[in-house]
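Standup notes
- DV: blocked on the single-chain target, sequence here:
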Amino acid sequence: MESYQLLQTIYEISKNDPNPETYPCKPRELILRHMQGWTDIRELLQDLESEKLITTVQQDTLVIKITREGILKIAELESVRRKNN
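- DV (later): unblocked, structure below
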């Protein structure tokens, strides 16, 4: 579940971009918003990437992008949350 909280953070960062799937999210943005150390965040990113909810590419710094599947997962989680409230 913690990895889905990180996915939500990535979505919140990229959602206002015209094409959120191309927004290059940087580690700094995640560290500042998720309030965890990089080692923990990196493990969560690996979990999300194995589920194909994000992609990562090493450039000058690591670039994280949410995938269409990641966006759909967030929508699913929000729908479940609304039903439970």
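- Follow-up: Residues 68-84 form the longest helix (17 residues).
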